[in-house]
């Protein structure tokens, strides 16, 4: 059922080549062993709300910014007529497109005992330089860089921002790495404590709601925004934005310094133009740690 949902959602803007990757990330079915075991069902935590309304259903108000939902209900039924309602709805329609670039931090020292000591490796610094050069080569007028407050994300931002002079940077704790939601199917190599899903999950969901949405009605021109953070955060955001089952986030894979490009159109439709792109890096510079 989830696979059929992915096929229907693709019509709302999923870019061609990425479809196969993401379809495989959400296809959930019975085990291949031929038994009668039912697929495992993971109930989303209360803070996640209705992440996806049901099989084959695209929720146009996923970001709570669908124009009709913003019109005051009492005024809507005041008998002022359809023309007045249409005019007021038009006042709530977004006019610009948001281009959101999600960058995973570069390779870092994973064996350091303290977070502040988990600095970038020499390779990681090279990766950040290559990512910065790639972003600069796009010739876009970037509006801002928002980055995680963790050391590896801060250092990645410092290097990338040198290639984008004049673009402001903002640090936030919301984008710090964590465990967004229990993955389905489960994995054996990574089993955080249940409380971590509760604490990190609420924060990462808050980051999604705060940063991923259609443009404000006052925004007149298309925007190009960079978010430098972590693999778990990016994978979860992609699933939520495309309204794929968020439990499938761990089935997506992202290289260090990779670029993921989401487009949020004025009508709320979301397209994925790139997922974990590192094609601009030489093969010997690519890592996934």
CATH architecture of the domain at 98-285: 3-Layer(aba) Sandwich
Task: Please list the strands of the largest sheet in the order they lie side by side.
Answer: 3-2-4-1-5-6
Principal-axes geometry comes out as: globular
- The CATH homologous superfamily of the domain at 98-285 is named Phosphoglycerate mutase-like
Query: Quick one: how many beta strands?
Result: 6
- CATH fold assignment of the domain at 98-285: Rossmann fold
Helical/strand content category: alpha/beta
How is the main sheet built? 6 strands, mixed
Note the beta-strand portion: 5-15%
| Count of DSSP H/I helices | 9
Low-confidence residue ranges: 1-11, 13-36
Q: Rg from C-alpha positions?
A: 20 Å
The termini sit apart by 33 Å
TL;DR?
This protein is an alpha/beta fold and 289 residues long.
Features:
289 residues; alpha/beta; Rossmann fold; 6-stranded mixed beta sheet; 9 helices; globular; disordered N terminus
